[in-house]
Amino acid sequence: MHNGVMQTSGTELVVVLEQLVTFIRQVSTAGDLSATASAALHRLGRDGALGVTELAQAQRASQPGMTQLVTRMEREGLVRRTAKTDDRRTVLVEATEAGLELLNRRRAERAEALQQTLDRLDPEDQAAIAAALPALARLVESRSSD
Amino acid sequence: MHNGVMQTSGTELVVVLEQLVTFIRQVSTAGDLSATASAALHRLGRDGALGVTELAQAQRASQPGMTQLVTRMEREGLVRRTAKTDDRRTVLVEATEAGLELLNRRRAERAEALQQTLDRLDPEDQAAIAAALPALARLVESRSSD
DNA sequence: CCATTATGCATAACATCCTTATGAATGCAC
DNA sequence: GTGCATTCATAAGGATGTTATGCATAATGG
């Protein structure tokens, strides 16, 4: 490549990401989750039990909306409400086994679809993407800690 | 780890993309578009005028749903309905200037937010991402032509 | 060339999922 | 304890999606 300045362009990255977003959105069909439901379940899978208000803020959703979403997901067996021992106002929400399994299934759907597309690329392109993965991981990492 | 080949992993890419997706979703606030509206407008901006049914299929939405969405976006001045000369059943939908401008504004929002995060990365990470951009562009390119 | 069938869009009725406003229970500060 | 803050739930309504259906136009086949 160049040895000069390799300017990383947010604009170019956004254009690519926009298309990957629609791609991913169309591929993940298992479980019939709304966007908010998917994101909330994802969060619970990563961070463990959270309060309803906490979860709502994390998803930029209203607290009543999150209460209702939790009720729906609870009815479908994806999450469980538990009491917080030291504060009886708080309701902790955690993913059930079925919820975690659904997450994995959806991720597998996406991964497989992506993999098929990756496999059709030139080896050099595949290598370039593979080489950028750690950097992209750090990008989202630095993002989530604000 | 256990082999020498630089294997591009769909699974790892999906994990990173999932987080970038939520990031982007939270950043794009201009115009207050639904996910479907954003995707449809994006499509119109890229591919020009399309029929309502065509547009619905592209977004995996129902045709009546797309009719209603087009009606709403038309009311907001984002798209325009025009007649197709050689088939009077078909209604062609195209983005207006205001629609295209809104697309650009949303993209700029996303790009700026991403850029700020990119700027905080190590130069090597920035370079790795920049180097992977053409490959990622080809990835989505090969995707959209199916 | 006319009857039949297919296609494309719109409308109606309804479901889902979000919002704001508000209430009830619990915790905290004084 | 009284008053205020916090947390979740409920109620009511709005936005946005769905399926079922109708109407206009086009294509097809005797």
From TrEMBL, chains A, B:
Alphabetized UniProt keyword annotations: DNA-binding
Protein's name according to its UniProt entry: DNA-binding MarR family transcriptional regulator
Species for this entry: Kribbella kalugense
A GO MF term: DNA-binding transcription factor activity
SMART domains, per database record: HTH_MARR (SM00347)
Keyword Translocase: no
Residue ranges annotated for the HTH marR-type domain, each copy included: 10-138
Record-linked Pfam families: MarR
DNA-binding in keyword set: yes
SUPFAM superfamilies: Winged helix' DNA-binding domain (SSF46785)
